Protein 1
Amino acid sequence: MRIKSIELSWFRGAADPVSMELNSKSLVVYGANASGKSSFVDAMEYTLNGGRIRHLAHEYSGKHLQKAVPNTHKPHGGKTELVIKLMNDSEVKTEIEEDGSAESSGSALTEVGTWDYRRTVLRQDEIVAFIQDTKGGKYSALLPLLGLHQMEVAAENLRQVAKNVESLSHLEQVKGALSQAKIKRNATFGTLTDDEILEKIEELHTKYCADKAATKDALSRCADLTAALEMRTEQLSAEHRRYITLRDVAALDIKGPIDTIRTASIELAGALDPLIAQKLALLQPTETLIGKLTAGEEVPCPACGQSVRVEELEAHVKAELERLKDIRATFGERNAGMGNLCDAVRALKIGLGKLEVKSWRDESAKGSLGSSFAYLDGLNVEPLRTTCSEQDLQDISSKLLPLVAATTAASTCASPDAKQLSDDKGLIETAKTAITSGQQAVVVTRAETLVFLLNTLEQMTREEIRLRSNTVIAEISEDIRQMWAILHPKEAIEHVHLYLPEDADKAIDIGLKFHGKELDSPRLTLSEGYRNSLGLCIFLAMAKREAKNDRPVFLDDVVVSLDRNHRGMIVDLLKKEFIARQVVILTHDREWYTELHQLLDDKIWAFKVLLPYETPKIGIRWSHKTTTFDDARAHVKTRPDSAANDARKIMDVQLALIAENLQIKLPYLRFDRNDRRVAHDFLERLVADGEKCFQNKTAQNEYASRRDAIEAFRAADELLVSWGNRGSHSFDVEPAEANKLIDVCEAALAHFKCGTCGKLVWFAEAEKSKWVQCQCGGIRWRYDKA
Amino acid sequence: MTIDVDWVTSAITKARGRSAPTPEAVWVQIESLLRGRFGDRPIPAKELASIALQLIDDMAPTLPPTEGPL
């Protein structure tokens, strides 16, 4: 669906309503810098991107761009609005409130909602940014255009669910606990099988719980046994109970966790521990946050406030986390070690605080262990779980290991009965852990199966994305190649194409052949102009994929860095590839505007000029000198004087531009500004110079003076002086006279375009800049008249 | 371009072939994830957690709490 008009009120540079009338035609808009061209493009971006304009999203513009979008001098009560009207008279109207909040309404909301900004609007700065972007950035920019966005979201959702399964199943912690349980089982039961351990429990159950039923499950039997052993311990003498408690304390492993923490700390010290810890602390919540954001959105960078795409931030965080993977594992080991140490020291404190060991403790404290007991009593255990310095480890080693050693020595004198009870108690505890571990192992296996499944499907989805991307990219590359060949015929840069690098996921780059050599990136060799030309081809190839929907394409100042020849080629490109599309070109290059005006078909294209911007209160204004000869013809019957006047105005503007291109020297007009020259002044010089300077190639391949052109200039000049002036001053031109004036003026201008190649006479310079000529050399004009 | 049904079916079939026996309810849930049940927007964090918990539950449908190998 084509656009009929875009109307702005107090939006960006606009003041009172100003409308870009397209009426289904394509349009070229010329305007000097800051005349307000981009306000119309901003309006498109604002509408298509849900109230966001990328180049305005910064720390000064406000959360809803409320400081940047409305005209700075909007009067009290003035409304900031924009209306995009389509050819079927449906429209999208967006009203923007003072706080920047906006509401869109209208019958074209659904249709316009399907337009993709990146396939609709191309700005010069976006071309530069795209070419200079990383391959990941290019992927993010192009992915929505490849039509694979939904698959990418599905893959990401699978990844996030897998991560949630991992964390909600506490996979890492449970696996750590299982590993500890295995060590304990091996220490207690050696190589006994599961059945042999169960038999052992049954034996003990028969021994200690003869009165209980034997049909219970293993865990219940263990519970029976624990109760029975507690009861038997209670019945022992105080001395025997002390032995048992001391044996329990002696079994605590404090040295193991200390070694684990030290080993991990040494590894982390090499990786600048504090910085890494800070990075991980920042990266992990950032990764979670990204999961809540929407692809395609922009978020402020936590460091500088600049807007970055969610995909860019996500790719960066993922890469950083991957880089820190080993370090994360070491962190995990150290944290587990600190947890184990904390548990062991707590058990030591509880064990040595029991009443049955009080006498032993009091006695021992009188000797060398006094400071160890004092240290243990004063120790706040819980903080060790999260922070454990080398000083802490040294203190624990020097103070607490002697205590454990003393309990080992003190418990060796236990009676055989007490020893047996203690051993059986330990055995039952280990058996219970082993049974629970079995269940946990099942849970771990299930969770791992689930994670494997989700990861497998994520991987398959990504492989499919890659496969489909390759197909789409191959099609787009073909279009890019064709467009490049039109813009750069017979040049040494060929085979321009997009490709998915093998070494990276979520990446796209641009390859090309430079003087016969394959290169992986245009950034290696191409000049700024060629890079921009390449960006233009890529965008147009993407936009071409919307051909069946007949959606408009906006090109905002996209030829800034192209030279005259290549700008000329863009006309060929538009004619060949976009003749059936509505294209809006905005340019501040007057020369190119003139060229487009000369070369593009008036039936398909309209041409408009913006006046230089004066003040925000006056706003954006169209120049009235934008009429075409066809427009003039349209009102010959009703207003012949106005039609004749329009023809004169066209000649004033066009001849000024032609004179500039042909470097026609005009006498300085005394007491007046040179830009007040009119068509007659230019035609007079063209007739005078044309005899020597304007030539065409004859059938004999020689150049001869273009007498037909000179006659045409003379005829136009004569009629303009008589009827053109009457049209603007005396209002008495007859329709027939107006028609003739229009025809003669149009015929005069047509002489500057080659009948063979269709290019203008100043298309290219020739013979060391002495001449300018069209592309085929059929017509030429001499600069050097000497 | 939406995710086409044929591709999802074939991907699920391949994944079934590669993984250990898995309850049917899990496959149903994963298939709907893949079909883009949630449209073209990432799933919000709360919903992600509830889907993950549901999948964990679905993976252990019948096992009594006190049984199992050591």
Note: The mean pLDDT of chain A is 84.
Protein 2
Amino acid sequence: MSGGHVKLESLTKRFDDVTAVDEISVEVQAGEFFSLLGASGCGKTTTLRMVAGFEPPSSGKILLDGTDVGNWAPHRRNVNTVFQSYALFPFLTVAENVAFGLKYKSVPKSERDSRVSEALEMVQLSGYEKRRPNQLSGGQQQRVALARALVLRPSVLLLDEPLGALDAKLRRTLQVELGALQKQVGITFLYVTHDQEEALTMSDRLAVMNRGRIAQLGTPEEVYNEPADAFVADFLGVSNLMDAQVEPGGNGKECCQLRLGDFILEAKAGELDAKGAVKLAIRPERINLEPYETRGVNCVPGMVERLVFLGSTTHIYVRLATGSALQALVRNGGDPVAYTQGTPVSVGLPADALRVLPDPGVSAAAIRDETLGEQLLDVTSAAPSAS
Amino acid sequence: MASVTGDPVTTSPPESAQYASRGRARGNPWRRPWAMEGFTWLYIIWSIVPIAIAVLFSFNKGASQATWQGFSTKWYVGRGVTSVLHNPSLHHAVIQTIVLAVLTTVICVPIGVGFAIGIDRWRTRTANGLNFVMIFSFVIPELLLAVALFLLVTQGLTFIKLGTPAEVAGLVVWNLSWPAIIVRARLVSIGRHYEEAAADLGASRFGAIRRVLLPLLMPAIFASAVLVFASTVDDFVIVEQVSSTANTQPMSVLIYSNVHGGLSGPALNALATIMLVISLIAALVGFVGYKWLSRGERTKGDVEALTAVAGI
């Protein structure tokens, strides 16, 4: 259980003429919960498979506690994988599945049994030893897969979308459990997911991947609050993106003046020294809706287009006078939401919440909609995007 | 529409009645499919009755294959007549058939399984070529293979003697497609995940095949073994060409060579019945065994077992 330090150096994987993973370099500390987040086809699973040993890297190094294991066979690496499909052996019982890998470690028979029951206890499946995988629910199978990997006490546990096949409610429960389990065992977790909520809630740090490269690497707070570019901003939850032009007025350090249609806005976050065409991003929860004709800095007139009630909050879709469509998130407190469709409002965009981002030239929305379209965001894609 | 003035339709009964009458004319979709059912029964009768009659006359008291003279098992076990048990050439044929079936199955299935795993893993142009060879025996006439084999063992590879060695060699080649195709189909449906999981948990390549892949392939291996066995019991063309003495003639050859003279009579029916029963038992064992071996998997058990045993 010692170690668990993973270092990827310019790791690259090419399949024929497709570059799935393009020179990524990451350092994961021992005992860290590290996520690779990205849409399908971004190279996150290929990266994980290279660490596991199922794919040889085209170039670059995989250093596991300082040793380059890039060309080692999977069974020689002290890492274990939890597969998306679980891959539990159907002809073995739960206990036999968990004990499978112990036969290759020099563990005496007596200790084997105690380790199996210990691992099953850890995933709260004591008493299920004699069952077969097909007699278990999806969530239970997932736990068996976890126990089967953890019983070997690997230095790194690789998880390939382990919650992908479960329903939303179970996924939430297991997210919490998995996070707690990782803290308990102290093993490095390398977690692959396309679900930004999963990545944000569980990880110590995460890397957002796009087209085989790492778009941003940081803590969940950093990545969410200070996205490096429009892709990351958009991929991590709903982000309102607007096309704007940098005006010469700002000082380039604390404040940046931008033109959005006929309006001049001030921004105090992001790349304040940018020039020319940029993207402006603001989180829905930071938008203030004021009564119409309220004046002030960064107030833009708009109109409510649509309201979506989400229980504790309401999403309000606003169309600005400049043509941009934005989403505002309003908490449902005691007062009922005073807006209806067609209400003119004044949209306040606080300067410290307005973030200037370099224009990546790729529509993140297009990539995001591919994978996350089924989530609550499908209303957004119906509204014309700012780009 | 009914509302159009002067339209003749307006004078006809209300719409619901119209639908009802059309329903009678075009048929209730849930009615009993008489035509289909009748045709199915005709087909079953057509294919089973001749066999049933042949089986029935193996129990005839008299020596006739056409006139029923009462029930008896003397053509199977009787003394003083040419019964299967006491006529040396008849019971030799039964033994020879079983020996050939067992030997062929034991040799053919492991080769076929290895062939399937190899071709599935070795993805090159050569492998694709071999893939075609795998379906060879479905394409070429069996007689061609039999004649070629005869020439080979009499002119070329004379160390393979006519009789049992040549028969087994021919049957193995002819039946190799069964395990190769059935096992390969299962390999494709299993995917690589289980093997990857085994390797991930510490199994070497060979260990993963032995501890994970083979158990998963077991239903297919078993089904193909049953098919090879049953198909060998039924085989005639190859064994007829390369059998040598009367001692190496299996049941099919003996029946064929005696049906127009020689040892005719209900004893031949008895021999054919034994052949049929062996094949039926093999199919039954295959069906039950496949279901048992693939228990614990979420599949349409019955249909899959049936198709596997039928060799689809």
Note: Confidence is low (pLDDT under 50) at residues 1-13 of chain B.
